[in-house]
Design brief:
alpha/beta; Aspartate Aminotransferase, domain 1; binds pyridoxal-5'-phosphate; 2 domains; seven-stranded mixed sheet
């Protein structure tokens, strides 16, 4: 069709600060990468996906739920929220669900932020915080991490102004994998004025093995301004299903529910999520495998002379002490895709999602060959 008439529509002014995601090689699908590189097989270690897939029980629930796709489903996701509430020892009214953690973050910012507000965000961290804040018309205030790559909580407290309405923390942080120090986190929360919402993104919490880890959920009675974000995309191996949830005080979940669409989480996601949650043995196994692979890869890359940040997640952040282009391209030629640090303006670094044992051994063998 020939569109020969000029379109005169203007967007909201905030869109001038947002960009359509430009897909680089690490963002493409496995099929696309295979075609671009002309390789038979691709090992994709750039999206922090689970190499272990979903639990068989989740897959069975998914198939069963597909037969109900012609009907509108429970708009309140009651069974899933009830199960999550029981799991975390909170009321179902304190749980909200959405299409992945991304959606939770977008709906939360849409329900709380307006033009003139500020949201404090560490740098580097997960990119969607700044994008979601910008879309509301509010201003993201980005604060660099410390020299040791830990989130600079003291600087974040110092950045609070009369306009601050929200603060984002990612624990463990993406891309560094570093966990917040529990004592520092507690001190920080005590210093934040109670009208400011602290978003604690715990997308990778289930991979944490450090017994000192402090989740936002248990802190809710003390800090009702906390909003914890979780996802089924990582340890549950359900990234393509799009399911995430938030845990917060009823006042905050009430605001959130005003901003969401009535049937926002589809029937397949609701029922698959419920089955995935109940397969606790599968999740325990994935966590154990992930921790073992994390140790293996951390040890091997350290032995090769790189600095590997101590990760509590399902990925490693590595300082190569040289530009990452050589290793990124060398691995890509062998069909192995990692995330170059240029994503965060840190060209000497890479982020590697942990694969299964076979994939990680393949990565190491390829790496040694390139070097
Ligand atoms: C820190 C963090 N939060 C949230 C998400 C969003 O995940 P999803 O929208 O798939 O639940 C991701 C995805 O990579 C992430 O790294």
């Amino acid at each position: 069709m020939c569109l020969n008439k000029e379109c005169k529509v203007e967007p909201r002014d905030v869109l001038a600060h947002l960009h359509v995601m430009k897909l680089q090689l690490p963002d493409k699908t496995i099929d696309e990468i295979r075609a671009i590189l002309g390789v038979a097989a691709v090992t994709k270690l750039s999206f922090n996906e689970s190499p272990y897939g979903p639990s068989p029980r989740a897959l069975a629930a998914m198939r069963a739920a597909a037969a109900k796709a012609h009907l509108y489903h429970d708009p309140e996701s009651k069974a899933l929220r009830q199960e999550l509430a029981g799991r975390f020892g909170v009321q179902p009214e304190q749980i909200v669900v959405g299409n992945g953690g991304d959606d939770i973050i977008t709906l939360l910012t849409q329900s709380l932020l307006s033009r003139g507000d500020e949201a404090v965000i560490p740098l580097p961290t997960f990119g969607q915080y700044a994008a979601a804040v910008t879309l509301t018309g509010a201003r993201p205030v980005r604060l660099p991490v410390r020299q040791d790559m830990a989130i600079d909580l003291a600087a974040m407290t110092g950045a609070i102004t009369a306009a601050t309405k929200m603060i984002f923390l990612c624990n463990p942080n993406n891309p560094t994998g570093l966990m917040l120090d529990p004592a520092e986190l507690r001190r920080f929360l005590a210093a934040v004025p109670p009208h400011i919402v602290v978003v604690l993104d715990e997308a990778y919490a289930e991979f944490v093995t450090d017994p000192g880890y402090l989740s936002g959920v248990g802190l809710l009675p003390e800090f009702p301004n906390l909003f914890t974000v979780r996802t089924f995309s990582k340890i549950y191996g359900l990234a393509g299903l799009r399911l995430g949830y938030g845990i917060a005080h009823e006042r905050l979940t009430g605001f959130f529910n005003k901003a969401r669409n009535p049937f926002n989480v589809n029937v397949i996601a609701q029922e698959t999520g419920l089955a995935a949650l109940r397969d606790t043995e599968f999740i325990r196994r994935v966590a154990t495998l992930n921790a073992a692979e994390r140790d293996r890869l951390t040890g091997a890359l350290t032995a090769l002379g790189y600095h590997v940040y101590p990760s509590q997640a399902n990925f490693l952040f590595v300082d190569l002490r040289q530009n990452c282009a050589g290793i990124f391209e060398g691995l890509a030629r062998k069909g192995i895709i990692i995330r170059p640090g240029t994503t965060w303006n840190m060209p000497n670094h890479v982020r590697i999602s942990l694969g299964n044992k076979r994939q990680n051994l393949q990565l190491l063998a390829a790496w040694r060959e390139i070097c």
